[in-house]
Amino acid sequence: MDKINLSLGNQQALALSESRIKNFLDGNNVAAQKMGWFDTVKDQLFHGGAKQEALQQLAQEFDAAHGLSAFEKFERLSRYAAPADRSQFTVIASGDADTPVISYQIKGHVVKQDDTSAETREVIAARMGFVIDLDEDMATPHAAHWLAQHERDDLEDARASVVDGDFDGEGGVHKRFDPTSGVLRAEDATGAADFQRETLVEQRAETSDSLARYVSTQKAIARDDMWEQLPSIHSDKPHATVTLYDQAHVTSGELDRQLDTLSAREARSVLMQVVDMARVFYQNDISHQDLHMHNLMVHKPVDAQQNNITLKAIDFGKSRVDVHTEADRLNDVRYLFHKQASSGTLETMRRNARETFNYDMDKQAKHYPLHKLLVQCAQASPGQHTGVAADAFDESISTIGNRLVTQLQQAETLVGDARTDAIDAAFNQAMTALAAISDGFDRLDMQAHFVRA
Questions:
Q1: Which domain holds residue 281?
Q2: Is the pLDDT of residue 53 over 60?
Q3: In a shared domain, residues 277 and 387
Q4: Across the strands, what pairs with 98?
Q5: What's the rounded Cα separation, in Å, for the pair 244 and 252?
Q6: Can you name the residues that pair with 15 across neighbouring β-strands?
Q7: CA-based nearest residue to 435, from 282, 269, 274, 214
Q8: Whose CA, among 150, 238, 308, 371, lies 20 to 30 Å from 437?
Q9: pLDDT of residue 6
């Protein structure tokens, strides 16, 4: 295998051989940093010790992130690689479903193999965005890496021609949107404040690989840059841009608009990703506070042979960063699992009344992603469970959520690595429990209480 070129930032570059990669993945950081006498002298004389320093930095990152699994290390390496090389990092799960073997490959070469559990396979599939059948081997590059290959980089002319009148069609009260160019305009102080919160999330994502995988932020345009980026705009309102993708390869849309198009396996993958996204937000001290389906973007390949799907959260206008209170930490969890409105009890009661008495249902359409994804899993399953009630899974999801909340509260009594590991374990158990419900839909004899009489 040719060496893999990595960029570690701060103008530090590193070319890793297959043996070094294996040592890093095995946790053998001493061997991974070892250099021969000649290489050491050459590095000191001609590069000022840059290679040794880069190896030490990589080892320190792995040491600082105690408990990183081989998969998470592999993810880290892939993100350091050049964008064109990231799709060469693939993960293969084979063998029995209960005791799968995970193989890590770079450019077709196996650099590590692990015997693992069904739960670990489930978590890896979710984090990779892989759509997988129960009896199918998993072999794919990361869905987020695939998606990044199709980011639009040809929008300069479109943005240069945007005028003030182009913001009349899309958006809400506080922000308007031009979908052709991906430019947003803040209509008032609330919209402008949203851009500031988006910047805080973007800054946090720059130092967190896991967070970057799940967020798509609005990038505010500095006033001094307006003339260069949006020369045809005369309004002095704040503007921002969002990432767009090549529609020849990617179908993108909000989850509430895409839900009915998802197959059972696609819905299951998105379901798992929603829970893993909540885990990532929790671990990064972020609370989105508005995780309804219209703020969850689903990106699917146009090519049906591509077995992946990518979920991204958008619109962080209500989000909070560096949360410390239990109410903020658990806000997203309680919305997802218990249907509790972020704004409080009164709004929760209002939404419950709409569901009970079936009025203003257009306002309800975007809410409760976990519940509606499970319904889609059932309705699109081979069992053809078309009579599943909209609230069929309230009790099951609430029970899983209760256990998750209890485990997270217990995790907060711990510190350091023990806390991190306990949080991961809690969310992974919730993911596994939801997966078990979804997998049951493949049976024709699904429990009767899930089906409307």
A1: 259-450
A2: yes
A3: yes
A4: none
A5: 9
A6: 5
A7: 269
A8: 308
A9: 83
